[in-house]
Write a structure and sequence with these properties.
Two copies of one chain form a homodimer. By secondary structure, chain A is an alpha+beta fold. Helix content of chain A is 48%, strand content 23%. In chain A, strands 1, 2, 3, 4, 5 and 6 form a six-stranded antiparallel beta sheet that branches. Chain A is globular. The two termini of chain A are 36 Å apart. The structure holds a DNA duplex.
Chain lengths: 237, 237
DNA sequence: CGTCAGATTGATCTGTGTCAAACCCAGTGG
DNA sequence: CCACTGGGTTTGACACAGATCAATCTGACG
């Protein structure tokens, strides 16, 4: 934990960021990529920092150089609904920029993170002047759209037990697993319940059910999926 | 009903379609708009016709010249989850085209409708070559993204009673009300429940609750909202 | 050690789903 | 003109998933 923190404290230079950006925006030249970045817009964030809050106006979006961020909405009596986790290589906040609307979600770091800030003018200019970039952005937006639609159906129709299985699989997919088989994403029961859209106690009970059925293994926050196939069946995939 | 049907049977010519398209894509010249359309891609659909089904590959998207269409996903034991209704001036199906993926939703006409088919090559070309169009498309995609996020939070956290109120208000907003005050959108209890994401019987009971509380008036499928403010309070808006 | 956030377990309570039966009404055909 | 049909609607009875509340436990960290 300690040395990881240190590693992240060292901010990458623009060239390094460009290299990562290039993986996300294959259609841009090195020149154009550099146009997106400035050294002083690269910044380190501590774990749990709020990047921006729902309802505020943001004047730019963020590219994740490293770390994991949590995107959520606050509903009903302050309970948060997690929409998704984003990681290295992902871009977030562009929706509000493009729509010229206040943010419809809050974002905070879920781990330490290094983010590159991209001002609205720069983003919008590039969309207007570079059709390849506009195309890449369309891809990103449309991918999110598909994910959202699926999410809506699932949350509306599946039981909590099914959804939890699905989310565990999704986490395994998106963030991978350690050498020892545990999910890489370190997440509290509360966050997990906010992601699934249920009560914390319910998640705990269901995880324990899974454990008893031999589907997963739990040691504290470490979760190992033992029987992917059966989990998929439960999730209805 | 009769003459309305007749009116719709007469297909509009390209110029008429262009005029409607122009309201949706303000950034295109008349030339470019015409490039999107061909007379033989304008077609009339009967009420309840399937445009395309989830999982199939579609080679183009659709612009709604007139009528209302229903976008839904089939989950769990065939129960459908309605994602949204689209109407005159809306574009649908572009997600799959842009992502080069099979459709993630099914679409069918909810009323008689006239749709203009826009082949993938035409759409993609325009995105690549016309930054104004790409910008308009980004706007559309990002608007849908915001709607989806809100929907996810609501469906996950609000009670059915709250959601039903919200959806009634949304329907009033999107489709308007008749002179006599009834919602313009004619919808069965079943569709309404699939939209809210609940059982038909539950919707019926809740509507009847609202009626008893003096919030709405019902005569068969005609629903009149009597007390918008109170409904908003219930919906939590 | 003491503290505190997070995890767990148990005991209720209740909103909704499910099943079954009846009803309403418009359209069809004899 | 009336019986018949079938889709949509309504009502009632009942069961259960999951929320809520309360109490206890755990483990990391100062």
């Amino acid at each position: 934990m300690k040395n990881e923190a240190n590693k992240n404290m060292i901010l990458p230079d623009i060239d390094l960021c460009c290299r990562k950006l290039k993986q996300t925006f294959a259609n841009l030249t090195d020149e154009e990529l550099k146009g997106l970045l400035r050294q002083d817009s690269i910044r380190h964030y501590k774990k749990g920092e709020l990047i921006y809050a729902e309802g505020t106006r943001i004047k730019g979006c963020y590219f994740i150089y490293s770390g994991i961020i949590k995107i959520y909405q606050t509903g009903h009596e302050g309970k948060e609904q997690i929409i998704k986790f984003d990681q290295e290589g992902d871009l977030f906040g562009f929706r509000s920029v493009i729509r010229h609307e206040p943010a419809c979600t809050s974002v905070e770091t879920h781990s330490e993170a290094i983010l590159c800030y991209i001002p609205d003018s720069v983003l919008l200019n590039l969309i207007r002047n570079n059709s390849g970039f506009a195309y890449d952005m369309m891809q990103i937006a449309c991918k999110e759209l598909g994910d959202s639609n699926r999410y809506i159906r699932d949350i509306a129709q599946k039981s909590v037990k099914e959804r939890l299985a699905e989310i565990l699989l999704l986490i395994a997919d998106d963030f991978g697993i350690e050498h020892d088989g545990n999910l890489k994403l370190n997440i509290t029961r509360e966050d997990l319940s906010n992601f699934v859209g249920t009560a914390t106690e319910t998640v705990i009970r269901l995880l324990s059910d899974y454990k008893n059925e031999g589907l997963i293994e739990i040691k504290g926050r470490k979760i190992k999926l033992l029987h992917i196939e059966k989990l998929k069946t439960i999730a209805g995939i």
